Amino acid sequence: MASAEDSYIDPSALRALYLADPRSLAMTRWRTRSGGAMPITRFGHAELINAIALGQFRGDYGETECSGAMDDVRNDLEEGRLRLVDLPWRAALDGAVSLSRTYAPKLGTRALDVLHVASALELQARQFITYDDRQARLAAACGLKVVRP
């Protein structure tokens, strides 16, 4: 099994480590098995924080839970469990255009799904962690090992 360092983790899957949901136990088990720091782009970090805040807006979680989750994300960054990685955005966006031309007509992928997979490819990830069906189909078509904890 590849380590977390060799993975691209969709922020919506990553959220299950910070806020309790039906996937949290499986995601926690995956994290326990996969050592190393989890890479996250600044875009992924922004999406993760937004997903936590959106959970509060929707009433799925209280302010205290969401504040604690954001503190946990910050602590994981500070302590090296999460690692911000630099992404060459021009290359990733050019890759996303290419993936869109090739796969969107066949798979119905959305722009953000394509951007996540293009980011994973640009970062040379070996596996793609997601619960999103469109992302999973695209990642698999691009040769990434898809893991759905």
Describe it:
This protein is mainly alpha-helical. It has two domains: 10-84, no CATH class; 89-147, no CATH class. It has helices at residues 11-14, 24-33, 42-57, 63-78, 89-107, 111-122, 133-141, and strands at 7-9, 38-40, 82-84, 127-129, 145-147. Helix 5 (89-107) packs across helix 6. The longest helix is centred in the middle third of the chain and has 19 residues, at 89-107.
Concise summary:
The chain is mainly α and 149 residues long.
| Overall morphology | globular
Helix percent reads 55-70%
Helix segment count?
7
Largest sheet: 3 strands, parallel
Strand content: 5-15%
Number of DSSP E strands: 5
List the secondary-structure elements in sequence, H or E.
EHHEHHEHHEHE
Low-confidence stretches: none
Average of the residue pLDDT scores:
94
Work out the count of structural domains.
Answer: 2
Strand order of the largest sheet: 1-4-5
Structural class: mainly alpha
Distance, first to last CA = 13 Å
The radius of gyration computed from the alpha-carbon positions, rounded to a whole number of angstroms, is 15 Å
